[in-house]
Amino acid sequence: MICSDLTNAASARSRHEHSSMKAIQRRIIATPWASYAQPEWNGPNTMVEALLTVCDATNPGTRKTAYDKLLYAVGNNHAGTYYPVLLPAMPFLGELIESEDTGPAATALCILDDLFASFHPEPGHEEFTDPAGQRVALEKTFRATVVNLRPILELIASKGDANSKLAEGLIDLIMDEPS
Fold first, then answer.
1. Residue by residue, what is the 3-state secondary structure of the chain?
2. Residue 179's pLDDT band (boundaries 50, 70, 90)?
3. Domain tally, the chain
4. What does pTM read for this prediction?
C-alpha cells in the first residue's frame, strides 16, 4: 500500500525542531545496526542512510524516496516482509511521527501504516536472539510497539493538520488488532 498522503503533507521546521532532528540523526548513526539480521542486499550503512532520508523527507519527491528506501532497508517491500533490524528502527519512527516537521512525520506514519497493515516477518526470522541474548518474537514485538504508540497517534489525530488522517488510519488498524 502506498500512502497517498505523502504528497499532501507540508513542512515547517523551527530552530528547536532542527536541533531535535539533529539529535535523532546522531542517535541513528550511533545505533549498532549490524547486530540485527537484515536483508542480504543491505550494506553497512543502509539503515543509517534510509532513516536519515526519512529525517530529511520534506517534499513529495523525497518523501516517496524515503518511504521506499526504508521499506527495502528493513525488508522486502514487494514481498511484504521485514527483518529483525526493524525493531531498533522503531524508536526513531516513533520520534519522527511526533516531529513538528510534517514531512518526516507523514513519511514515518505511512511506513508504520504499511508495515502494520500488510507486512510480516521474513520467513526464518519470526523469532531471533537480540544482542542482549533474549529470544524475541519479531511480529508480536513489532505490533505491540505500534499499539503502544496509540496515545501519540490520538494526539496527532486531534490536531486536525495534514498528518491527522494518517494517524487516524493507523489508529483504525490498531483498533482492529486482536487483544
1. CCCHHHHCCCCCCCHHHHHHHHHHHHHHHHCCHHHCCCCCCCCCCHHHHHHHHHHCCCCHHHHHHHHHHHHHHHEECCCCEECCCHHHHHHHHHHHHCCCCHHHHHHHHHHHHHHHHHCEECCCCCEEECCCCCEEEHHHHHHHHHHCCHHHHHHHHHCCCCCHHHHHHHHHHHHCCCC
2. low
3. 1
4. 0.89
